[in-house]
From TrEMBL:
Signal sequence bounds: none
Protein name: Activator of Hsp90 ATPase AHSA1-like N-terminal domain-containing protein
One record GO biological process: protein folding
Family statement: Belongs to the AHA1 family.
Organism listed in the record: Pieris brassicae
InterPro entries: Aha1 (IPR036338), AHSA1-like_N (IPR015310), ASHA1/2-like_C (IPR013538), START-like_dom_sf (IPR023393)
GO molecular function term, any single one: protein-folding chaperone binding
GO CC entries: cytosol
Domain (Activator of Hsp90 ATPase AHSA1-like N-terminal): residue spans on this chain: 29-163
Amino acid sequence: MAKWGEGDPRWIVEERPDATNVNNWHWTEKNAGPWSKDRLKELLINLKIAQNGIDCNITEVEKLDGEASANNRKGKLIFFYEWDIKLKWEGLLAGSADKIKGEIHIPNLSEENDVSEVDMTVTIKSSGDEAQRVKAFMHSIGKDIIRNQLTEYIRSLKEEFSKGLILPKKGETQIKPDNVSTITSGFNKKVNMEPIVSSPKQVGCKLDTKNIEITETFQCRAQEFYDALTRIEMVTAFTQGHVKLEAEKGGKFTLFGGNISGEFRELVPGKKIVQYWRYKQWPKEHFSEVTFSIEEKDDNTLVTLKQDLVPASEPSCDFALQCLDNSRNNLEKDFCKLSSRRNVQVICD
């Protein structure tokens, strides 16, 4: 039996400023739905996304369905939120007067997913090269900026909206919500009381992407390397297979039995090649952008390859990198054969 004046604090009524919810023991819930809708619209509408001559902005939150709540149990703050969001956006390329319009769908912003795992689908209403370039920009840069805004929404939900949920005890005027936890909204799902560690995730055709850069030195002239990727007989030599290739701006190419296809975007003889690359297993109409920067030195040629918008979940398909890395010996061997016939001096390893 407890001594007089002692006992389970759950049943001891303290002198409190409001005389309710002793020790914050009872479950209290605060509807965060209307506040969340206002906050998400504030963070997303008119959001500017601009870089490298591409200027985009979110024009409208077309759809915002879901719910959110903040809860207090035993002095812990627990948050539930689940949103299905559809945004409208516009983009403009520098020097162009034609606006590109599209949508972004975010179907699963919830406490069950880290922001880095939230799915985003970018679509466009236009067609053509400019539209595809702006879409690719929104796929990479745009999605990252939108994720930052979603992170800010979650922070403000936990730190700003939740004020007043934990009531002060006797002698206290304010409780800081240091004990913040998040659990899932399902009854039979795992409870998570630890900080969330994000990890890359790919679902369906909603792409997370990565960029790759690699530098290699080749014992050949800069023009020889350029020719190796733009002349059909040389490309055939190092791929050892049937090749379709039109080395001009807008020209198409197909390599390795159709596994790789794409389009030439920029050609500067002996200096630069920019292509759209597509691996046939990638989601429909998704292309990466590959840039070969070629710099001739005194005794070799330095090649820097940059490949942007590679699907993060398919490391085995980083084909531009594999081409540069794994085909190096074949390229240099074939340079020598072709160069000897053309009477160009090339030093081989």
